[in-house]
């Protein structure tokens, strides 16, 4: 709601929405929001942060989809069910 109301001209709510989408594993929604920040606020510090997140989102997506677990200090692939 914050990104559509009074804060519409503020890039922060839209950027943090994208971060929330990333935490939820909704990477396509996150890309849309990050691109929106970059397009609507190209000179803001949030646009720079959005561009960095966009560059890293593929690795985040891969990590989310293929988690590894630690067992006695060594890496172990997650089981496929």
Written overview of the protein:
- This protein has 81 residues and is mainly alpha-helical.
- Helices cover 60% and strands 10% of the residues.
- Strands 1-2 form a two-stranded antiparallel ribbon.
- Strand 1 and strand 2 form a beta hairpin.
- Helix 1 (11-24) packs antiparallel against helix 2 (27-40) and helix 2 (27-40) runs antiparallel to helix 3.
Index terms:
81 residues; mainly alpha; 10% strand
Q: Which residues sit in consecutive blocks of at least 5 with pLDDT less than 50? A: none
**Rg from C-alpha positions?**
16 Å
Q: How many angstroms separate the termini?
A: 38 Å
Order of helices and strands: HHHEE
How many DSSP H or I helices?
3
Please summarize what this structure is:
The protein is mainly alpha-helical and 81 residues long. It has helices at 11-24, 27-40, 45-65, and strands at residues 68-71, 74-77.
Q: What order do the helices and strands come in, and which of them pair?
A:
Blueprint: H1 11-24, H2 27-40, H3 45-65, E1 68-71, E2 74-77
Helix pairs in contact: 1-2, 1-3, 2-3
